[in-house]
Design goal:
Strand content: 5-15%
Number of strands: 5
Order of helices and strands: EHEHHHEHEHHEH
Distance between the termini: 22 Å
């Protein structure tokens, strides 16, 4: 079984991938791989998610466009490496794999998205409206690496923080539509670290999807 988790930063991708890794899945983590590349580039001293977020900064800050483009370039390289590894894996190797993507994987291009759908079951970890509001508050207080892709547009006379709050809601809505478009299936789950995640909450719908696909191909 090969699973790709997609969704906004903070939607639970890393939590779920850690749960799956404890159940025998080999985890491919995009954040760590991108962080290592940024360290090799001399952009960061250490590639933690926190430092990547601070390095990326906000879309109204000087140099954001360059950092956003560089991050996406590295993300494309990482995704190509992961996908090539899956595509060239021996057919007898059926070990389960989970790809923990970044929130911006939807911007890596049609070719990568198609390969992801061919090699894995793409699961969108969707969240409730209340939880998306929490994501916004968390982002403003502690920015994660977020690619805006032209979604940040200040109005005349608008202050940066007001524009950020308004545009981030629009970004979440646009991302939600894109994730739904490219995923094979959707699992609604607001991640709460104090409550353990039951692995079958994710694996049951994936198994059902795979069974339905096998049945349709055999018909």
């Amino acid at each position: 079984m090969r699973i790709t988790l997609i969704g906004m930063s903070g939607s639970g991708k890393s939590l779920w991938s850690s749960v799956l890794s404890r159940h025998g899945f080999h985890k491919l983590g995009c954040d760590n791989a991108i962080g290592r590349r940024l360290v090799d580039d001399g952009e960061l001293a250490e590639g933690s998610l926190y430092l990547i977020g601070r390095w990326m900064g906000f879309p109204f800050e000087t140099g954001f466009a360059r950092r956003e483009a560089l991050y996406l370039d590295h993300e494309k390289v990482v995704m190509n490496q992961f996908l090539t590894a899956l595509e060239t894996r021996p057919t007898e190797d059926a070990s389960p794999v989970v790809i923990d993507t970044t929130g911006s994987v939807i911007y890596t291009g049609q070719a990568i998205r198609q390969r992801l759908r061919q090699q894995t079951v793409v699961v969108y970890l969707s969240t409730s409206a209340d939880f998306r509001r929490k994501l916004h508050r968390t982002y403003v207080a502690n920015p994660r690496p977020v690619l805006w892709q032209q979604h940040f547009q200040k109005k005349p006379g608008e202050e940066n923080q007001s524009a950020l709050k308004r545009c981030y809601k629009n970004l979440l809505a646009d991302r939600d539509a894109r994730y739904r478009q490219y995923a094979h299936l959707e699992v609604l789950c607001d991640p709460t670290p104090d409550q353990p995640l039951e692995v079958d909450t994710l694996l049951a719908p994936v198994r059902s999807f795979l069974e339905q696909r096998r049945s349709s191909h055999g018909a």
